[in-house]
Each structure stands twice: as structure tokens, then as C-alpha cells.
């Protein structure tokens, strides 16, 4: 912090520039992260033809990755709370790039699923460490926006991965495509390590709860449940919309991969920026502001998720994708930031890691069940059930959060009025 001659605080522009530079570096890393995980969903028809994948095995492509990714995330969160982030983050990037290379060299369904599991382990190291670094560098007034900017990379990565996967499948060059992605990731690792420099450390205050104990909060638990439902809907969209559009509307693989992702991801990016800015503004006026944005986003996006699968025309699909993406983005921009409002700084890693685990389990279950029951139940009815669950979870979150923060305000008012 810098002071003028009168002792007043002068805004440290160098420190702010450094904080946003780290966000930019991590944005590119997260873009690569999502491109590498998303690209495979656009080559499902090729995998069925060349490697003999069944519907269940196609569902397992998403499920195996997400289950391994999610189960490793709490451990990755603890690593982020204990070790230097400037080394942990680039190591994750290098390792998942090697897993991407292995995916492209797979000669059977079992081998490809193995590499998806390896990618789950290695990519799982990234997110808790990255958001911990961002939250540490950005105080409350810019935290939601910084996390939102970083999170927008997943939407750009989804678009790039969806298009690139379809393109390399149409060009019969999917194996070379995976090799190219791996080379890009490994090349960026060194630049990322140099750019991060030395990040600030976070230490627990005396008697402060750490680890899983720091997550023992009704607000955090209800937030996690709401995030579970959102991720179930989100990953069902990621995994199955390209194939649905290809079959229902006769689009090419590249066209269906692009259309399934572009409208959804572009709207999500808009929602994540709007949600971050709105939450930073609202939380200065209402302490629970970030939580309310999360609840409103989930409530409003849920009906559009069903409509995306029930659409009978491309125009209707695009409208549904934009509606779902916009409000889902508003929620996603504030899930981790809301958790950090009720979790101590020394447990930022485990808080993000546990949320990642919960979201990954939800996404894995939804992609697997969709693959198993797509012919018997249908994708639209399954998404309708998830949409109803989203509305219920949103209402429950608002009620729990309101009780928590109203109780704290009453207690504070009572203490201030006591002589």
C-alpha cells in the first residue's frame, strides 16, 4: 500500500496491474483446459465408427473424466492451500497436455477412457489453485469480476473445442488434432510459470477452522447443492447437444459442434461478466448479494435448459441456448466468490476443490445417465426433471442465505445497542 504526505492511502496501480495480469495469464491456461476436455465430445460419431464405442461408453467419456476430476479436486484444494501456487498451476497444465497427447494416440475404447481419467487427475489440480490465487490478489470489491473474467475462458474453450473437434473429425485428422493441442499446452507452460512470478502466501489465523471443518456452514452446503444441479444440466448440454443437433437437424459434425456450443457459450460469457459486475456492486449494499445472484441465475436458467433439448427448430434452440447460457453464467460467476464470503482465506483451496468435486459428480452422473437412457426415456424429459430440481434448489438457497445473513445482522444490531 502507498501513502501520500498527508498519510492518506494512494491507490497502488502497480499492484492492481499485477493482479489483473495474473488473471489474464490464467485465462489463457483455462482456455486450453476447457478446449482439451471439450474437444472429444464433437467426435462421438467418429469414435462409434472407428473405435466401436457404444452409447454407454460415449457417456463414460464425460463421466470418467468428471468423476476422477471431481474426486481429486478436494485433495487438489488442500495442495493449493499448502503449496506454492506458482508451481502447482503450471505443473497441472503440463501434465494434462500429456494426457491430451495420450488421448489422441488411443487405439481402443478402454485406452481412450484411461487417458480421460488421467486428464481428470491432472486438470483437477488447476482450478482450486487458480481461483485461490485470484481471490488472494483481488479484494472484495473486484473479486467477483476477477473470478468471472477467469471463468469466461471456459466458454471460449467450449466454443473452440466444440468447433475444432468437429473440424478435425470431418477432416479425418482427429489424432493429429489432439497432438497439436498437447503441443500448445506444453509450450504455454513455461510462459505461464515465468509470468506468475511469486504469488502471495495465505496463512490461517489463530484458532481458525481449516480443511473440511471450514466448510461446515448451511450456506456453503446449500450453495453446493445448487451447484450440483447446475452442473448436471450444464454437462448434459456439453456432452449431448452436438449429437442431438446432428441427428435432429442434419447439421455436419463441425456445424453441430459449433452450433451446440457457440450460442450457449457466448451467452454464458455475457452472463458471467454481467453477474460478476452486478455482484461486486450489490454486495457493497447487501452482504448476501453474491448469493442472491447465484439463486436468481439458477432459477431463471432452469426452464431454458429444458427448452434447449425440446426445441423443434434451430431458431428455438438458439433462443433456449442463449437464455440458459446467460443466466447460468450469472450464477457461475459467483459460486466460488459466494463461498469465499463464508469461508476463511486459509481454506480457499479446499472450498473451491469441494465445489469442483460436487459439480463433477453431478456432471458425470448426468452424462452417463443420458447415454444410458437417451433411447428409452429421451433427453428432453430427463432435462425437464433437472430443471424442476434447479428451481427448487434456487428457492432453498435464497431462504437459507436470507436466514443466515438476517441472523447476523440482528446479532450485530443487538451488540451495538447494548450499553
Quick structural overview:
With 419 residues, the chain is mainly α. 81% of the residues lie in helices and 1% in strands.
Instruction: Give the name of the CATH architecture.
Output: Up-down Bundle
Total strand segments: 2
Q: Helix/strand-derived class? A: mainly alpha
User: What portion of residues is helical?
Assistant: over 70%
Name the beta content range: under 5%
Termini Cα gap = 37 Å
The unreliable regions are: 1-11, 410-419
Which word captures the global form? globular
Number of helices: 14
User: What's the number of domains?
Assistant: 1
Largest β-sheet summary = 2 strands, antiparallel
| CATH class descriptor name | Mainly Alpha
The rounded Rg comes to 21 Å
Mean pLDDT: 84
Biggest sheet: strands side by side, in what order?
A: 1-2
Order of helices and strands: EEHHHHHHHHHHHHHH
Per CATH, the superfamily is MFS general substrate transporter like domains
CATH topology: Growth Hormone, Chain: A
Amino acid at each position: 500500500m502507498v501513502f501520500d504526505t498527508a498519510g492518506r492511502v494512494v491507490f497502488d496501480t502497480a499492484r492492481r496491474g499485477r493482479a489483473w495480469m495474473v488473471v489474464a495469464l490464467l485465462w489463457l491456461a483455462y482456455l486450453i483446459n476447457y478446449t482439451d476436455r471439450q474437444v472429444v465430445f464433437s467426435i462421438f460419431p467418429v469414435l462409434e465408427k472407428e473405435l466401436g464405442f457404444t452409447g454407454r461408453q460415449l457417456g463414460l467419456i464425460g463421466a470418467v473424466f468428471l468423476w476422477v476430476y471431481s474426486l481429486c479436486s478436494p485433495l487438489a484444494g488442500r495442495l493449493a492451500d499448502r503449496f506454492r501456487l506458482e508451481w502447482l498451476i503450471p505443473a497441472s497444465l503440463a501434465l494434462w497436455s500429456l494426457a491430451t497427447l495420450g488421448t489422441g494416440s488411443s487405439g481402443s475404447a478402454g485406452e481412450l477412457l484411461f487417458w480421460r481419467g488421467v486428464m481428470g487427475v491432472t486438470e483437477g489440480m488447476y482450478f482450486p489453485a487458480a481461483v485461490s490465487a485470484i481471490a488472494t490478489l483481488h479484494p472484495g470489491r473486484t473479486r467477483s469480476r476477477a473470478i468471472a473474467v477467469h471463468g469466461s475462458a471456459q466458454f471460449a474453450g467450449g466454443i473452440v473445442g466444440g468447433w475444432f473437434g468437429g473440424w478435425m473429425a470431418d477432416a479425418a485428422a482427429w489424432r493429429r488434432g489432439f497432438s497439436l493441442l498437447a503441443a500448445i499446452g506444453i509450450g504455454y507452460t513455461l510462459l505461464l510459470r515465468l509470468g506468475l512470478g511469486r504469488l502471495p502466501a495465505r496463512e490461517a489465523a489463530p484458532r481458525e477452522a481449516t480443511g473440511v471443518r471450514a466448510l461446515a456452514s448451511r450456506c456453503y452446503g446449500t450453495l453446493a447443492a445448487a451447484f450440483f444441479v447446475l452442473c448436471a444440466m450444464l454437462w448434459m448440454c456439453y456432452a449431448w447437444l452436438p449429437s442431438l443437433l446432428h441427428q435432429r437437424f442434419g447439421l455436419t459434425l463441425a456445424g453441430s459442434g459449433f452450433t451446440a456450443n457457440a450460442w450457449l457459450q457466448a451467452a454464458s460469457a455475457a452472463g458471467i461478466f454481467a453477474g460478476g459486475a452486478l455482484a461486486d456492486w450489490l454486495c457493497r449494499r447487501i452482504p448476501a448479494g453474491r448469493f442472491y445472484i447465484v439463486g436468481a441465475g439458477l432459477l431463471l436458467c432452469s426452464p431454458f435448459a429444458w427448452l434447449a433439448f425440446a426445441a423443434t427448430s434451430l431458431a428455438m434452440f438458439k433462443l433456449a441456448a442463449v437464455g440458459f447460457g446467460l443466466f447460468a453464467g450469472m450464477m457461475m460467476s459467483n459460486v466460488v466468490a459466494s463461498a469465499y464470503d463464508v469461508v476463511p482465506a486459509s481454506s480457499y483451496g479446499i472450498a473451491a476443490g469441494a465445489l469442483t468435486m460436487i459439480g463433477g459428480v453431478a456432471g458425470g452422473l448426468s452424462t452417463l445417465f443420458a447415454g444410458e437412457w437417451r433411447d428409452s426415456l429421451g433427453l428432453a424429459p430427463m432435462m425437464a426433471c433437472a430443471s424442476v430440481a434447479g428451481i427448487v434448489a434456487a428457492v432453498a438457497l435464497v431462504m437459507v442465505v436470507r436466514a443466515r445473513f438476517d441472523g447476523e445482522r440482528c446479532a450485530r444490531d443487538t451488540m451495538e445497542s447494548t450499553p
